[in-house]
Amino acid sequence: MKKLLLSLFSLAIISTADAQWIMQTAPSATNNLFSVFSINATAVSATGFTGPIRTLNGGTTWSQNITLGGVNTFEVHTRNPVKWYIMTQNSSWFMKMGFSSVTLNGGKPDSILSLHFRDLACVLAVGTAGKIEASCDTGATWQLRSSGTIQNLNAIWFSDLDSGCVVGNSGVIKRTKDGGNTWSNITSGLATNLNAIHFPTSTVGYISGAGGKVLKSLDAGATWTNMPTGVLNALNGIYFVDADTGYVVGTGGLIMKTINGGTNWNTMMSGTSQILNSIHFSSNVDGWAVGNTGTILRYNGSAGLGINSSAAAITDFNFYPNPAKDFIVINSLVNTAGIKLFNALGEMVYEGNATDEIKIDISNYPSGIYFAEWRTGDKVVVKKFVKE
Fold first, then answer.
1. End-to-end CA distance of the chain
2. Which CATH architecture has domain 8-13+308-387?
């Protein structure tokens, strides 16, 4: 058994949460990006002014294989790793396949601002003047749905195959329980514009909007509660990696994170003052944010806060004791796996490589909640422990 001990010197030189978001180089610095969607840590697409861009190597290089000549593309979404779908300002529906070609499937009568796939074939699209349309043949044909509002609908997300919500201007929230066929009005208690929505589970959902507003639901969108953020920025994007751990992005380069379901929010260093419009995570530790003037930010993997131990049911990585006082012992079936420890603020307090078993000295750590990240080339697991 080998022992890896953390010294006070190493505590002084390791990086903190301020370095978690890393600026990427976009194909053009003049194009505003409105949406980002990632399949995994390497395959990511973003879209905005003049069309979509994509990377297949985790952001090292980006390319644009179609130029739409000044047409805004508002959102990219997929449930299929070889088929990406993009909505444009002039309401054309594009299908992007395999990151290599783009096919125009057809036109639509009104601008579409957001879309969400319930499954591989069925998609709901929402947009201006209360527009809701549905397709279950990946966009070949569309059926109009009645929303009961003339407000712009800015975002849509389904918590499961049947239940979903759309949000829009003037505090509008609409909910469906039948896969998007019918929609009912849900009281938000707000008159401000609602910009984004995400359900990390079938019951827990979050909405972000103007004036720093965040709403939370615990009943699949039937009711919503205001969760104060302490800011007044327009919050344009929201994404939660689990029921408690999530992020919002907005004006002024703002990125904030919560690890307790929106009760408290901490501002993260973004390195930009540009408007950020969208955020998406492909795993608990791999995330992307995009915004104006070609801004692309990548989360560097120093995440995982708030992940329940039960959610990481993997035998390749275990540790004891928990709670711990003086040390933790990490068992790994994969030699050379990377091991990191983080405190509740997201600051990395330990980094090393796993062997069969390592013993890490935590006797000098302040009491509180910590997270252990175990990472190989194709797996990332994060587990929580308590330092007494």
1. 25
2. Sandwich (2.60)
Nearest to 341 by CA among 313, 299, 383: 383
- Map tokens 């985790």 to a residue: 58
Token pair, residue 366, equals 């302040």
User: Which of the 8 DSSP states describes residue 11?
Assistant: H
The alpha-carbon radius of gyration of the chain (Å, integer) is 21
Tokens 């509008």, residue?
A: 172
CA-CA distance, 352 to 340, in Å (whole number)? Answer: 7
User: Which of helix, strand or coil describes residue 130?
Assistant: helix
297 contacts: CB under 8 Å, gap ≥ 6: 21, 22, 23, 24, 255, 270, 271, 272, 276, 288, 289, 290
For the domain spanning 20-299, the CATH number is 2.130.10.10
CB 157 within 8 A of CB 205: yes
Distance of alpha carbon 341 from its chain centroid, rounded?
Answer: 22
Domain boundaries, the chain: 8-13+308-387, 20-299
Cα–Cα distance, 380 to 260 (Å, whole number): 21
pTM: 0.73
CA distance 89 to 210: 22
Per residue in 129-184, pLDDT (tens digit) is 999 999 888 777 889 999 999 999 999 999 999 999 999 999 999 999 999 999 99
Cis peptide before 27 (omega within 30 of 0): no
Beta bridge partners of 283: 286
- Retrieve residue 322's tokens: 């928990």
Q: Which of 221, 208, 195 is nearest to 247 (CA)?
A: 208
Question: Running DSSP on this structure, what letter comes out for residue 254?
Answer: -
Q: pLDDT digits over 83-130, tens only?
A: 666 766 555 555 554 545 555 555 554 578 888 888 888 889 898 899
What is the rounded distance in angstroms from the CA atom of residue 82 to the CA atom of residue 140? 17
**Distance, CA of 101 to chain centre:** 26
Residue 201 φ/ψ, nearest 5 degrees? -135, 180
DSSP letter (8 states) at residue 13:
H
CA 266 to chain centre: 16
Q: Are 269 and 17 in contact (CB under 8 A)?
A: yes
